[in-house]
Structure formats: structure tokens, C-alpha cells
Amino acid sequence: MRASEVAAAVGGTLEGEDVDITACAGLEEARKGDLSFCKDPKHVALVEGTLASAVLLPPDWSRGAPCSVIRVADPDHACMAAAKLLAAPEPKREPGIHPTALVDPSAKIGAGVHIGPFTVVEKGVVIGDRAVVEAQVFVGEGCRIGFGTHIYPQVTLREGTIVGADCILHCGVRLGGDGYGFVNMRREDGSISIEKIPQLGIVEIGDGVEIGSNTTVDRARIGRTYIGPMTKIDNLVQIGHNVKIKGYSGLIAQSGVAGSTEIGYGCLIWAQAGISGHIKIADGVQVGPQAGVPQSLDGTQKYVIGSPAMSLRDVAAISLAPKMIQKLRLEIKAIKEALAAGRHG
Amino acid sequence: MRASEVAAAVGGTLEGEDVDITACAGLEEARKGDLSFCKDPKHVALVEGTLASAVLLPPDWSRGAPCSVIRVADPDHACMAAAKLLAAPEPKREPGIHPTALVDPSAKIGAGVHIGPFTVVEKGVVIGDRAVVEAQVFVGEGCRIGFGTHIYPQVTLREGTIVGADCILHCGVRLGGDGYGFVNMRREDGSISIEKIPQLGIVEIGDGVEIGSNTTVDRARIGRTYIGPMTKIDNLVQIGHNVKIKGYSGLIAQSGVAGSTEIGYGCLIWAQAGISGHIKIADGVQVGPQAGVPQSLDGTQKYVIGSPAMSLRDVAAISLAPKMIQKLRLEIKAIKEALAAGRHG
Amino acid sequence: MRASEVAAAVGGTLEGEDVDITACAGLEEARKGDLSFCKDPKHVALVEGTLASAVLLPPDWSRGAPCSVIRVADPDHACMAAAKLLAAPEPKREPGIHPTALVDPSAKIGAGVHIGPFTVVEKGVVIGDRAVVEAQVFVGEGCRIGFGTHIYPQVTLREGTIVGADCILHCGVRLGGDGYGFVNMRREDGSISIEKIPQLGIVEIGDGVEIGSNTTVDRARIGRTYIGPMTKIDNLVQIGHNVKIKGYSGLIAQSGVAGSTEIGYGCLIWAQAGISGHIKIADGVQVGPQAGVPQSLDGTQKYVIGSPAMSLRDVAAISLAPKMIQKLRLEIKAIKEALAAGRHG
User: Which residues of C touch A34 (CB under 8 A)?
Assistant: First the structure.
């Protein structure tokens, strides 16, 4: 795309050479062929040092640029618009079942559904209209997938899993694996036997849920592991059996929720945080990165951090302990000296 | 299934309408069609608020329920029994090799083995009787899989991996990837070269081991990475090269064990804990959630927590530090005031 | 292989029976058929207790061994050499496209490339000479893979991903999944709408990069998520959108880097560490295991640890707080007693 075409598309004015633009990038990472943007004069040095071929700048930007310039009222917004034009369009997944896909005759496939190569759809599966199930996916017996849901390659849905409408499941998502449940039995001879507890329930995912790459959600021991509507889960997250996430919550990468825990509406669980099993997190609570929550949070504290999780204030108090101790040491030393002086005085 | 049929199956008595029951669920999550249970009178409010179609209650439960009731001596046990009846049976994997599977002619496949669609079994592989290798699995050259072992879809076994009998490998398990090993070499001209250390060993998994979804176990640099019998590993766990887990241990989700570490019999590593490399954890030690273990644990402490890991007592002492400091501050203040008063008095 | 053949290959001298050797292993884990090694006399008890069939020992080792002995100048080095001989060679991936692979006619496949069974290569893909793309891999539209790069089974490359030359991608790696980006919009009626921010960029991987099993790297929101040359990433690592890792760095298992963060040259991020988004880590900084880095690190501290990350000295001070407090308590008690005695005296 030419810079002049980009300028026209975003309602801006081109100054300088009508270069070729192939992508968008930040000022520092941009290279030849990239379009970048800046609106804040404090980043003038970044603009002057950029390797971009063109840069979107506000009308009142008085300093020069080492490349072509497109003047536009809102450079941020314009760059986002340009990025959409420049990005390779997401591959079209046309309706139809790839000839290499194995779809059981008993499966009910909606209108306009795409099923990719080497995908397995087992018996009794129901797939809603316009759903996309890409290549190399495994959809086990009796699964139900809502309309408009997009499943990327190499996802596995174990038997009985229910996925709502307009969901997105990224590559390598695992739904419905057995929950972790064993009982240690000590036999009469004293030896230990470890018995598997049957995991008889399912996973149910509400509408509008997005689940990141390689995230795992275990099937319930009994009943359902439930991820409520509009919940957005990042990569490599672990959701244990019988967890209930009410909905409209976010779980950032590598966080984990242990079995039978309930997470309220509108919660945000930051990266690498861990929530113990059999507890409740109230609506709207945020759990900070790497925090570990051993007990229910009733919402009195809206944000917890640390392991075990506590208020920001308590975390700060512990961090300050060495400094406070040093202060007290000096005070005690002064008292001792005063006493010694007093006695000798 | 009708409620009366459930009642008959669990040896209970139906009171109320003979409703349809399709699944089991907890009191709070239950909906129409669900059977729930309660034995503890303190949960009376949950029973009264449940949306279940029927609830299992003990004979002496005097309060009502908003649905049909099945009286039974042990409601917990009865619900588990009912769940087994109601759960969709796990899909049958009949003996036989799916026509789309690619099984090298040199592979030795036992009696009654199931091999699913799009699965690749390379040369020299040996699979024991009654093993199930589901769809889209990769079994590399020379792997050995014990009898009765169940491998779910999309597992990969790199060349030479040995899996014992009666194991379960959940979706996305990766066995035998290269261990992480590099040496930084500084060339004569000062530049750095990062050389890969060949990872020449294998992974060996004992009998009765279960490994959760998307867990990774690296092949040894030399010799074997070893997961001993009856070890139960949860999802998204990392086991480094040359780790030796003696057996009968549990590793909960997202925990990790670094290279060459040895874990004794009967250990329990809780979620998100990390164990450093080249150390030994004695038999029966528990490592708490999110704990980080930098040094060997000889079993003197049966439970450690925190990062770096310490006793519960030491963790508590650090948590209490701010409170103790405040107490000392007040005492010092009082002494100072007493001294000031004394001098002026 | 016979012990005598091993001895000849490593330039050593066999003493004792010419046993069969099938693998190498450490003294403690070795079994029948294994070759082990020892050079340090302090491990004499391990040598005497080993179950290995043969052991490599230095010429001046005076104590016996319960098995055959191969005398050699450098037993460590010799064992590594023997391991290379004994290890099953990595399976040969001959040039050619497996008949079950689906390669779009528009894809450009270099000379000597191997493409394994059930692999999907979409339109516009370019694969460099001698690259190996193993079984069940998904290569999305317009991806580019450099020469000599080795992609193990069940990797997914979403559309537009660029992988350099001589890279290694282990099983289950996910490149180019959508970054985690949503905006909460409150509608006029007060209800919340959670809108997905389009992720329009790509992932670009430099030359010589190795990425471990089940690791995930998200595509950029705009521009590129960039993993610079010679970076070595372990298993189950998460790299967020628009992260820039300059190169020659290591990221150990289960660590994570949040969106838009920049990591300098030659950094080492230890296991389970987490780096916040939108910060910069200076060249050569090490982040300790399980550390959490909330703010940029300018290189003043070469090693940080803890969550939030701090210097080793600060971590030690906090650990020592309870002991220091106890010391101050005793001093205060002594002062009080002295004062009380003084008053009464």
C-alpha cells in the first residue's frame, strides 16, 4: 500500500515521498516499510530516531521526522485504522467440511459451518450455525458447540463438553480432561493404594467466552465445571474440576483456580496468581499477579496481592520491616547510651 | 432416568413427583433435571433455595425441600452412585486400528489395542495389550507403551519414550522433548556463542502413572528422566531433564521440577510450587502451593511453604513482623516518656 | 554395544568382563546394561553401590567397582562421548512431503524439506531449504520458516508468523495466537460490554531460537511480537503480545512476560518468574526463580529475586526480620528491668 493511499484512508495529508507501507509498528521497533505514529511531543527523540518509512503525526507537530509524514488529527486512532487495512486478513474459513475431516454421521452440523482438515467430530456432536472448527481439532462424543464459535487448530474437547455461542478457543485448549482426584487407601498390609476418583461431570462454557492457547479446563467430578458468559481467559491457565466462574471475569496468563472454587462476576485474576480450592471470590475482586489466595474473599478488599494474599498495605508493611527495625535499633541504642550516661553522670 | 429409578438404584425412597433426572450437581449449581444431595442440617438454606429437580436427604431431615426428595441413609455416597449411573459412559474405544492411522509395519501392536484416527506410530514402537491410543497422537520411533495404558488425543511421545502399564496420559501431554541445556561459549573475538548440549537420554514412566493435560516431561541429557509408579501429575506441570520421581507422589497443577532433582516416595507438590535443580526432596515431604524450594529437604520439615520455602512457623513470624514492630515502637515510646518524666521529675 | 567397543571408542582400557552396554546413566540410577562414570574419589560409596554394568574411572582410581571398569583420562567427557554412540539416533526425517500432508499449491517449499504426515501448510507459506516440519503440524497462511529450522509434531503457527533459520520448535508450541486485549465498555443502560481489541500484528522469531514444549507466543496487537536471535525458551513459557526480546537471552520453564515489555540482550529469566507489561529489562539482567518484576530494571541490579522483585540483600533483610525483632524485644526488656531496678534501687 502506498503512503498516499494510507493517508487517504485515514483522512490525513501526506508530506514527503510516497513510500510503500506494509505494516504498522511502534517507533522503536519500526523498520523500512513500517508506518508508525506519535502524538506526544515528549517522544520527539523517538520520532527522530525511528527507522519507519512513514509516521503519523498531529497537525501541530513542529519538529521534523526522518521519513515521510502523514498529518492526521488523531495519530493513535489513525494507526489502528491503518493497521486493520494493512494486516493480512484473517484466513477465510469457508463453509463446508474438509474431505479429510472425520465427521460421524450422527453429528448435527449447522448451516455455514466450517470443519477443517484432519478434524475428528465424534458421534452425537451438535455444532451451531456458522461455527468454525479448524484443522486437527478433536471433538469428543456428545459435545455441543454454539453458533458462531471459532475453534482454532489442535484444540481437544473431551466427551460431553458444552461450548456456548460466539466463543473463541485458541490453539491447544484442552476442555474436559479428568479432574485431579485420588484417594490414598492404606491396605491391611500397610501398603498404600492410590485410587482414582471417577470424574463423571462435564465442562460447560457460556456465551462469548475466549480461552487462550494451551489453557486447560477440567471436567467436573460430578455436575459441571462452569465458565460463565463473557469470561476472557488468557494462555496456559488452569481451571480445576467443579470450578464455577460466574461470568464477565478475566484470568490472565498462567493463573490457576483449584477445584470447586467459585469466582464472582467481574473479577480479574492477574498473571501467575493461584486461587485455592473450595473457596469463594466475591464479585469484582482483583487478585494481583503471583498472588496466592488461600481463603475466601468477601469483597471487603477489592485488591489483594502476595502469597498468601493480603492487602497492598500489609505487603508494604512487611517490605518496610527491615527499615523500621533499623530505626528501632537506633532508638534503643540511644536510650541505652542515655541510661549509661545518666548512671555515670 | 426417572427419580424413582434413581431411588431404587441407590436404595432410597422417593417423596414427591417422579421427575426426570439427567445429571448430578451441587445444591447451588443445580438446575432443572439435576439431582443434588445434602446431609448436613446447617445447609438447610441451600436445600430450600436449590433449583434441583430432586435432592437426596437423610431419613431424619425434618425440613422440606422445594423439589422431589429421595430419602437415603448416606446422601453423599448415594449421589456418587447416581452420578455413575447418569454420566454419559466414557466413549468405547473398540480394539482395532483406524484406517487413517499410520502404523509403521515394524511396530508391534498387542491384542485388543485401539489406535485412533490420524495417529502416527513410527517404526520399532511396541504397544502392550489393551492399550488405547486415541486420535491424533504421535508415537515416535522406538517408544514402548505398557498394557492397559490410555493415551488421550493429541499427545506426543518423542522417540525412545517408555510408558508403563495402566498409565493415563491426558490431551496435550508432551513426553521426551529436549531438556533445556546450553553452554555459553565466548569466542576469541569476544562474541558469545550459545551451544546446545545434546539431550541423548529418554523419558521413562512407571506403571499406574497419570499425567494431566498439557504437562511436559523432558528427556534426559544422559540416561533417563524417571517418573516412578503411581505418581499422579496434574495439568501444565513441568518436569525437567534427568528428574527422578521415585513414585507414589502427587504434583499439582502448574508446579515445576528443575533438572536432575530427585523427589522421594509419597511426596506432594502443591500447585504452582517450584523445585530447584540438582536437589533431593525426602520421602513424604509436602511442598505448599507457590512455594519455591532452593535446597534439598531432608524430611526434618514435613511441610514447607513460601519462596524461598520455609516452615509455616517462619512464614507466620514474617507476616507478624509489622505488628511486632508496632508493639516495640510503643514500648520504646513509653520508655522514652518515662525517662523524660524521670529526668524532669 | 560391547564394553570393549565403548572402551575403544573413548580411548580407554577395559578391566573385567566384556559386558553389553545399552545406555549411560548416573551411578545411582544406573541398572544392568548401563555405563556410568565417576572421577571424584569422594563418590566411592556410589561407585561401590552402583548397579551399572560398567563404569568409567580415572587411571588412578584405587578402589574397586562391582562391575566392569573402563579406565580413561576424563570419565565425564568419555561418558558424554559414549552416550552419543549409544543413544538411538534421532529419527531421520528424509526430504519429501508425506502423501497425507496437505500443502497448498501456492506454498514455496525449499530444497530438501521434510513435511510429515497429517501436516497442513496453507497458502502463501514459504519454507526454507532443509527445514523439517514433522507430523500433525499446522502452518497458517503466509507463514515463513527459515532454512534448517526443525518443527516437532503438533506445533501451530497462526497466519503470518515468521520463524528464522536454524530454529527448533518443540511439540505443542503455539505461535501467533491472539494477544489478550479487551476493553470494558459500560453501555448507557449501565450494563457492561467487553469488546475484543483486534490483534492485527504477527510473531517474528529470529535465527537460532529454540522454544520448548507447549510454550505460547502471542501475535502483536499492531506490529510484531519479536523473539531475537539465539534466544532459548524452555517449556510452558508465556510471551505476551508486542513483547520484544532482543536476543541471546534465556527464559526458563513456566516464566511469563506480559505485553509490550522489552527484554535486553543476554538476560536470564529463571523458572516461574513473571515480568509485568510495558517495562524494560536492561541487557544482562537475571531475574530469579518465581520473582515478579513490576517495574523496569535498568541494570543497576544484575540479579533480582522475590515478588515484588528486589535485591538478594533486601530479601535476606526481610527473612531476618523475626530474628531481629526478637533481639530488640530482649533489649527492651532488659532496659525496662534496669529502669525498674533503678527506680527501686
Answer: 223
